[in-house]
């Protein structure tokens, strides 16, 4: 029963990994642009959720929507002010611009919030639930279920809607999409605005440096799932969360990342395009 609880907990955490990695796979797959600041976007979303709870005493629905809206506005603003101007430049300019953006966001958060770890105060998601003998924190359960639902909804949006068709058209061939009357800048701005979430705030305490860890996890999820595939990110996120939880239980928490990255490298040796990517 303990092992089952570890497995379920790992899958729920993996679902949140999949959600915040979906934004990165959209940017990477559609724009061929490497966003090294993706983890910092997630970190800022967590702090927005924290401020909404502390200052406004908002519940889970309020801080989730507030964080999503705030990061949507920030993502669009950064695209218009920075990304749009360097996307046509050499790869080195893209790498340095987002790496510098990551440092700017991270150390601004250090200046405002300090290096101390914080966590969400008790909300309506406090407590645990007994599910067939498996005891799980309500916050983690709700966060994982919502993350799966939103990731599946994003996949459906991309494959069964006009906006999704336009996004995929820009990803496939920017020039051909322009000939069909699609505005690539608008689609890329939308993808950049969808690149962050705040459900990780329900999982465990954090500090401004946590964005670095989340960014690395997101890159692994995207590469493992397949570039540009939201469904692949879902599968990869669940796999990584499960491997982390099981390896931490059996080997110790300090070894979980070694196991994940080792298996990741071994898999890409045989399937470099990832689980759902094109060869």
Topology overview:
Layout: H1 2-31, H2 38-56, H3 60-86, H4 91-113, E1 128-131, E2 134-137, H5 138-159, H6 162-172, H7 174-179, H8 184-193, H9 210-225, H10 230-251, H11 256-270
Antiparallel strand pairs: 1-2
Account of the 3D structure:
By secondary structure, the protein is mostly helical. β1 (128-131) and β2 (134-137) form a beta hairpin. The chain has helices spanning 2-31, 38-56, 60-86, 91-113, 138-159, 162-172, 174-179, 184-193, 210-225, 230-251, 256-270; strands at 128-131, 134-137. It has a single domain, classed as Orthogonal Bundle (ABC transporter involved in vitamin B12 uptake, BtuC), CATH 1.10.3470.
Helix content: over 70%
Low-confidence parts: none
Largest sheet: 2 strands, antiparallel
The third-level CATH topology is ABC transporter involved in vitamin B12 uptake, BtuC
Please give the domain count: 1
CATH class: Mainly Alpha
SS element count, helices: 11
- Order of strands across the biggest sheet? 1-2
How many strands?
2
Question: Which secondary-structure class do the elements indicate?
Answer: mainly alpha
How far apart lie the N and C ends?
40 Å
Overall 3D geometry?
globular
Query: What is the alpha-carbon Rg in Å?
Result: 19 Å
Tags for this model:
ABC transporter involved in vitamin B12 uptake, BtuC; two-stranded antiparallel sheet; about 280 residues; mainly alpha; globular; about 70% helix
């Amino acid at each position: 029963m303990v092992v089952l609880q570890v497995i379920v907990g790992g899958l729920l955490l993996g679902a949140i990994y999949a959600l915040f990695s979906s934004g990165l796979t959209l940017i990477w797959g559609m724009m061929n642009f490497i966003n090294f600041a993706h983890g910092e976007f997630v970190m800022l979303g967590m702090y927005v959720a924290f401020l909404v709870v502390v200052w406004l005493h908002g519940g889970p629905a309020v801080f989730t929507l507030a964080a999503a809206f705030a990061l949507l506005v920030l993502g669009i603003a950064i695209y218009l002010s920075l990304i749009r101007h360097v996307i046509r430049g050499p790869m080195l300019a893209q790498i340095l611009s987002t790496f510098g953006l990551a440092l700017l966001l991270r150390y601004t958060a250090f200046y405002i919030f300090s290096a101390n770890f914080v966590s969400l105060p008790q909300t309506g998601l406090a407590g645990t639930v007994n599910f067939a003998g498996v005891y799980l924190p309500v916050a983690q359960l709700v966060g994982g279920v919502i993350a799966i639902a939103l990731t599946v909804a994003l996949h459906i949006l991309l494959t069964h809607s006009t906006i999704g068709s336009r996004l995929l058209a820009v990803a496939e061939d920017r020039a051909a999409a322009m000939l069909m009357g699609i505005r690539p800048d608008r689609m890329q701005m939308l993808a950049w605005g969808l690149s962050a979430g705040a459900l990780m705030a329900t999982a465990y305490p954090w500090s401004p440096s946590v964005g670095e860890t989340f960014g690395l996890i997101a890159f692994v999820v995207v590469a493992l799932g397949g570039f540009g595939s939201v469904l692949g990110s879902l599968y990869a996120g669940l796999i990584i969360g499960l491997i982390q939880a099981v390896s931490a239980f059996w080997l110790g928490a300090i070894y979980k990342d070694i196991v994940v990255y080792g298996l990741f490298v071994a898999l890409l040796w045989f399937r470099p395009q990832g689980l759902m990517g094109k060869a």
